[in-house]
Amino acid sequence: MEVDNIPNTVSIGKETLQKKSSFHVSLLCVKDILATKNIPEQEILGAFCAFTADNDISFVGHTGEFRFAQHEDRKTLVALCGVSNLERLFTFLNERFSVTLTTQPTHVTLYTLQPDIGIGLNTPTDMETKSVLVEVPTALKEALGVSQE
Predict the structure, then answer these.
(1) To which H or E segment does residue 90 belong?
(2) For the chain, what are the domain ranges?
(3) Which conformational region is residue 130 in: left (phi greater than 0), alpha (psi within -120 to 50 degrees), or beta?
(4) pTM of structure
């Protein structure tokens, strides 16, 4: 996932956020499974590894949707994205551990108010209650290869 060429700062409303020093897409919050069932963490990680051995999980691309997230004093800008086989992963884990987890909303945290301090957006409810849809500068969209529609 190439995001190194994005601007160093972005202004959203009255806030100026700083580019993160590194980027990733969170796929699974293990603590969410641990909170619903007493399953050893190593067993969950083993199941994840077994799934990924047979199923490609990879970044597909940015959707063009950007959200400004706030929680307590933390503020971030995230870019929603697609990840292959994530629905299948959650179906596999739900069946394997008899849980009912919802697929995580996949996103990349691009900017933060405090250096490199993000916000947990692990469920659709988190995304809905902690963030709002925002427009971002054209330069950011172009740097991420998001089409201008």
Answers:
(1) helix 86-97
(2) 9-144
(3) alpha
(4) 0.89
